[in-house]
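Annotators were shown the component list below and the corresponding predicted structure, then asked to write short factual statements about the assembly.
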Amino acid sequence: MNVFSDFRDTVAAAVAALQRRGELPEGLDLERITVEPPRDPAHGQMATNAALVLARAARRRPMEIAALLREEIEGAAEVVEAEVAPPGFVNVRLSDDLWRRQIPVVLRAGEDYGRCDLGRGLRVNDEYCSANPTGPLHVGHGRGTVYGDALANLLDFAGYRVTREYYVNDGGAQIEAMARSVHHRYRELLGENPGPMPDGLYPLEELIPVAKAILERDGDRWAGRPEEEWLELFGREGVEAMMARIREDLDALGVRYDVFVSERELIAAGRIEEAIAFLETKGLVYTGTLPPPKGKQMEDWEPVPQLLFRSTAFGDDIDRPLRRSNGAWTYFAADLAYHLDKIRRGADLLIDVWGADHGGYVKRMQAAVKALGEGRAELVVKLCQLVRLYSGGEPLKMSKRAGRTVWLREVVEEVGRDVFRFIMLTRKNDAPLEFDLRKVVEQSKDNPVFYVQYAHARICSVFRNAAEAGIATDPETLAAAPLDRLRDPAELDLLRQMAGWPRVVEGAARSFEPHRIAFYLHDLAGAFHALWTRGKEEPGLRFLLAGEPGSTAARLAMLAAVRRVIANGLRLMGVKPVEEMH
RNA sequence: GCGCCCGUAGCUCAGUCGGAUAGAGCGUCGGCCUCCGGAGCCGAAGGUCAGAGGUUCGAGUCCUCUCGGGCGCGCCA
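Structure shown to annotators:
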């Protein structure tokens, strides 16, 4: 299917041949054998460590095994040259033709080029963003949201069955706080002058329209009434309005979900009791008293017997409370119900994307999933570090106080969806990310998005020029192109980079690291830009050559394939490939 | 005090399942626009991979410890 997995088969065949000849023992562990393009081009285009890995079990010297492997591999198809390098690598040069033949492979596969079956249809539930419905999304939410969305694209492409999910925390104390905030605004609108927004409530301006809508519909009937009468209504109206706003924010980012799950509905359906009853049957729930946290001053700490989940049985540091002293369920209890719900809906792998400030929650949730899934479901938590926002080198403080928060949508509207998404994916999820608003819009040089998009646009430009010159660019012509005209090292280098795409997809999917796509595309674009500039110095290397229809067709086929790979990569990132730069 | 994450070039960061002489962008210095789009290309300088042990044929990568930074640490979500 791709050059790398094919060569892996070649190596495996060579090992098997040596086993038949009695040079290597049977029953070797081939798992640790790797096949990879060496960093140093002097080491060929493909290298394997097979001899090094097998030496111990085979009780032979690595160099001896390597020499034997070299003989076998040299006879294999597409291998031009194989050599042994100390301490026992076998380095291989593959035929130019093999690389050229990747062009029709790419063109035929089209949008599916790079798709693989790594996931084998495994059902993945990918939950990301899940911001509380108490306000619009801010910039900090954007990173996890883009990460989770790109990860979903990636895993889908790698053969997983992905559900994209948003957990709406519409049931906790924060909703009551929002309800009171709306009521406060309601009283303001009635001219009651209730004073400044009390601490712990939300001073967001975005809640004023919610209060206004209630006022217009219900008049002053909730004024001066006890909380029990209006709290739920105000909370529900607030959640509805904020979720509508959040959906707009998600739209602006180009993020779509399959499922929104409401915490309130789970609770109303008795799912918490269900989850806890299930754990009780396993003997994992008990009433006990937790020790005070060490090293942290807790003046008001009092020993309180609570209903606890025995998470220590699954690697957590302490057992975790399920009920508060006032009898209410903890957030963790609701999360048990929610994760049980995910498992029951049929997920083999759960992915939770959280902010780094939730790191302390990982162990207990993994313990919970182990207990609830009885070992059948796995929970992977990906923590996204903070986004440090700057403007022209000056840090922007993002405090919770009203007016200082930077809303996601403002930023997306300012820099554009594609730029925002790409930048969010230029860092590993567990590394902090610097985002400078002004640099990103003013200085495109600092912006890897444009570098990649420029490559795509330049290729499109070549095709526009070809069309103007009356050169055929239809798929049949490109498919019939004499690809052996592609002989320049820079051309072959570009083809080799391009052929690495399936390997990048696999690696990125395996490690849940969509950022690898961004770096790969940057490198691929680099190889293309380099070739482009060579054409300035050596006119014979230009893509469109008057009087040489064969070479022109071959180069157009190559460009079409490279453009395809760039487009596929950008698509997984959720970034639009552009045909022209402005 | 405990747990999790991080420490790689002046800055921001990559670094493949443990592979060979550690890379990119920005910044600095020097080159390339009669020519398919210069938002581009080529070159130079810049590194005790925080430190010390260990495992291994081989460690930026795995293990232990130390130092430094971030996040978190009953009944908040």
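Statements collected:
1. Chain A has 22 helices and 15 strands.
2. Residues 117 and 159 of chain A are 4 Å apart (CA to CA).
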